[in-house]
Amino acid sequence: MTNTENFFAPDAVFVTDQIKQDLVLKEVYDKLLERGYVKGNFLSHIVEREHNFPTGLDTKTLGQNIPNIAVPHTEGEFVNTRLIVPVALKNPVLFHNMIKPKETLEVKFLFMLLDNDPDGQAKLLASVMDFFADTPANELREVFNFTDPQAIYAFLKQKFMKKKTRISSLLF
């Protein structure tokens, strides 16, 4: 189901024109369920978790004019695989700020984390955060404004594989 060499799957990269958070999560859930990546109870749990523990991230510290992102996720018992699911939002969608939960952010891109290993989610989140830190601001601006799933997949696969190769060369 998932390519173990990569955190991404070409059939799990999405672009949506939904304008409300719950509708975005529902649309992505429907596609993920159809492809067997998540279980039937995933949607209610990811929506509840997002409402109780927001995942919006203010990107001001990464550079000028970089769209805000969110990293929605839920417990591993509701998923069937390990995967980062990129979702480009054609319209800004309000998410609450992870750091300041009462504050809302206009988000333009999601990295939905799926991990059926209870300890793995932190590793996926760390990989996404490393991607932000290692990618120049102009490239982040570019990818967060892509509206072609294949272009998003190709860009992220290349970036994450380059990072993995660099880490492997340091370890061995």
What is the averaged pLDDT score?
A: 90
Number of helices: 5
Shape: globular
Number of strands: 5
CA distance, first residue to last residue: 28 Å
Radius of gyration: 15 Å
What are the secondary-structure elements, in order, as H or E? EHHEEEEHHH
| Percent helix range | 40-55%
Strand share of the residues?
Answer: 15-25%
User: Which consecutive residue ranges, at least 5 long each, have pLDDT under 50?
Assistant: 165-172
Strand order of the largest sheet: 1-4-5-3-2
Q: What does the largest sheet look like?
A: 5 strands, mixed
The helix/strand class is alpha/beta
Structure description:
By secondary structure, the protein is of the alpha/beta class. It is 40% helix and 20% strand. The protein has helices at 21-34, 42-52, 121-134, 137-143, 149-171; strands at 14-16, 56-57, 68-70, 82-96, 104-115. A 5-stranded mixed sheet has the order 1-4-5-3-2. The chain is globular, with a radius of gyration of 15 Å. The two termini are 28 Å apart.
